[in-house]
Amino acid sequence: MKVSDILRLKGGTLFTVSPDTPLAEAATTMADKDIGSLVVMEYGDLVGMLTFREVIQSVVRNGGSVGTTLVRSAMDDAPLTCTLETELDEVRRMMLDRHARYMPVMDRRMLMGVISFYDVAKSVVDAQNFENKMLKAYIRDWPEDKGG
After folding, report:
1. Alpha helices (H) along 11-116
2. Are β-strands 102-107 and 82-83 bridged in parallel, bridged antiparallel, or unpaired?
3. Band of the pLDDT at 148, cuts 50, 70, 90?
4. Longest dimension (CA), the chain
5. How far apart are CA 120 and CA 138, in angstroms?
6. Between β-strands 82-83 and 45-51, what pairing exists: parallel, antiparallel or unpaired?
7. Looking at residues 10-23, what average pLDDT do you find?
8. How are beta strands 16-17 and 37-42 bridged, if at all?
9. CA 53, CA 34: separation in Å to the nearest integer?
10. Are 104 and 49 in contact (CB under 8 A)?
């Protein structure tokens, strides 16, 4: 299974933010949309990722408030990315190695979507459920031994 399979099932809604957006505004968007990440874009290019982890770290650095902090100073400016062709096993390894919960999907310089660790886990469970159904159907339809 490839990343393109996950995006096809997930749909294409993307939420982006500029690096010069106030962090408070970005956090409000994340809360209102019930999302855990925003892709940070500048002049059409991916320049970072903002997740709840970076928001919390910024709040702690600021003594419990976001204050006038901009997304630029809170974001991960070197996010892990993958392509549509990246295999799911590789994505799992990459996400686990970097403790990444969200990964932008790129086609050269174009943002194609974002996959989450939840999306990856769900696709693995769905694939296993499908495989289990196929195996059970195969076993149920096993021809009887006529002996002889």
Report:
1. 23-33, 52-61, 71-74, 88-98
2. parallel
3. low
4. 84
5. 27
6. unpaired
7. 89
8. parallel
9. 15
10. yes
Strand partners, 111: 106
The SS3 call for residue 42 is strand
Query: 9: closest CA among 88, 90, 79?
Result: 88
Q: How far is CA 14 from CA 7, 84, 111, in A?
A: 11, 16, 9
Mean pLDDT for the chain overall: 89
Strand, helix or coil for residue 44: coil
> What is the full DSSP assignment across 62-86?
TTS--TT-BHHHHSBSS---EETT-
97 neighbors 75 (Cβ within 8 angstroms): no
Single-letter amino acid code for the residue at 86: T
- Rounded mean pLDDT of 65-79? 94
Query: In the CATH scheme, what architecture does the domain 3-140 have?
Result: Roll (3.10)
Q: What is the SS3 assignment for 89?
A: helix
Compute the distance between CA of residue 66 and CA of residue 5 in angstroms, rounded to an integer: 37
Give the start-to-end residue ranges of the domains of the chain: 3-140
pTM for the model stands at 0.80
